[in-house]
């Protein structure tokens, strides 16, 4: 009887922590003990940008394009609301990693029973495979649009990024962060020019950030709005963030952890505002270019690419769009690599070589993408892209609810447990995400 009882100790965990998260880079980056706050902030800056990548990956583009072409600037308020939810959840993920020394996968393993933990692991692996599928298809579409490379060839080419990830991991974590930030700047630069070329109506843009009752009363608008909300917060980002904040060598004291939480939260919040700019820019360009010219049926990435140049009067518009898409796809593969490693090691405590783990994840995404492309062509890959977002939506609550539960637990978090106002806010966000994703899934499968 005694053996079957939960082994919960005074720290609130069923099991003790078995190992560190991402051991090859764990606490590998020093934090200056002296110096200005800005210098310390720079030392903590970086993980937030890896997290922000998931909020601008190719899976988000279709909903932003459709929302802009169909309804103009109205759904900008939904993008803004989604971003605020993301800021709250990523701050909690960072705090979990800093305070407990566990990433979210390890926390689930150490809290839940083995059967529950295994179910959560399987769901998470499906979500990562779905996310990787979106990245593969997005990169392949970008290669096809820019260079005319057939989709199947483009999908196969994406295997090569395994070598890039390995090279960067061997050189140090700062190299991965630097490349990710460079690609984010590239995406942002492309859309800054796109905004200039499309000349949106400033008054309409500002009005779009104010929530409208029409979003709820119009069924079609509500469906797109929920699509934007459901596709914004990515479950693998919560696992990723709770791990990579531990790459910093902050002091393991109350003051050290408090400082780490502060700078980590600032890092992710600022980075997510970059993601807000890019997602909003996609919708604004779509609204200014398509909606205002009566092209309200543009909902696909390739349609947007081909129509930008003639409508804006310059080939640069389409080229910049394609470059931004390629950068977004490649950026997402880097963070997907780390998330896959974190989840497998955290839930199972099985350590595979990074190249093998990446190759397995890549093949899970590539095989269905190649088969569907061969049978159904380009239209099939776009349907597969939508399916990947549905799978992500289905899994999201299984990551959000444990995160809110753990960070609200005083036994696990001590004085760092969520205060009452944050606990209420976090649970409200969790419930909203769960309800909206269920609604989105019902609508998707019912064909509405």
Report the portion of residues in β strands: under 5%
Q: What is the rounded Rg?
A: 21 Å
Total strand segments: 2
Give unreliable regions as ranges.
1-8
**Overall outline:** globular
Sheet with the most strands, sense and barrel status: 2 strands, parallel
What is the average of the pLDDT values?
85
Question: Span from first to last CA?
Answer: 52 Å
Q: Output the strand order for the largest sheet.
A: 1-2
N to C succession of SSEs: EHHHHHHHHHHHHHEHHHHHHH
The amount of helix comes to over 70%
Helical/strand content category: mainly alpha
What oligomeric state best describes the polypeptide chains here?
A: single chain
Number of helices: 20
Q: Explain this structure to me?
A:
The protein has 448 residues and is mainly alpha-helical. The protein is built from 20 helices and two strands. The protein has helices at 37-44, 47-52, 58-71, 76-100, 104-111, 114-147, 151-157, 161-171, 173-198, 202-208, 214-217, 219-232, 235-244, 254-289, 301-312, 315-348, 354-376, 378-407, 410-413, 420-446, and strands at 29-30, 248-249. It has a two-stranded parallel ribbon. The longest helix is centred in the middle third of the chain and has 36 residues, at 254-289. Mean pLDDT is 85; it is low at 1-8.
Briefly, what is this?
This protein has helices at residues 37-44, 47-52, 58-71, 76-100, 104-111, 114-147, 151-157, 161-171, 173-198, 202-208, 214-217, 219-232, 235-244, 254-289, 301-312, 315-348, 354-376, 378-407, 410-413, 420-446; strands at residues 29-30, 248-249. With 448 residues, it is an all-alpha fold. Strands 1-2 form a two-stranded parallel ribbon.
